[in-house]
Input
Amino acid sequence: MSFQAPFTIEQFYKNLAQGKLMAGKCTQCGKIHLPPRPLCDNCFSQTFEWVEVSGKGKLLSYTVIHIAPPQFQELAPYAVGIIELENGLRIPGMISSVIPEQLKIGMDLSIEFGTCNTTQAWPQWPRYCFKPA
Ligand SMILES: [Zn+2]
Output
C-alpha cells in the first residue's frame, strides 16, 4: 500500500502551497471533487485518488465586494468570481490584476498561487487567485 494524503481541505491547502491545484477523484464512480471531500456525494464511496487539475478557465459569474471582512478591507473593491475550469469543474476565487470594470463573463483566467495580497496575519493560509490569462 502506498501512502495517500487525506482528502481534506487542509491537504488541499498544502497542495496549493506547492503550486498544485489538486482534486479528489472518486475511484468508484469517477466524480472529481474540488475541493476534495472524504465522502463522494454521488456514490458515497470513501476511496479517492488525487488528480491535478488545470488552473485555466473562464469566468462564469462574479461579484464586486465593496464592504469586505476586516482582513480584506484594504483590497476593496475587489472581485470574487466562480471560474469554470477546462475540465468543467467550478471553483470560487478572488480575481486579481484587473479592475472590476474590465471583468467580462466568459473571459479567460488562469490561477496564480500564493501571490494574492492579504493583510491577515493569522491564519495565513496558502492562497490562490485568478488573473486574466
Ligand atoms: Zn463516487
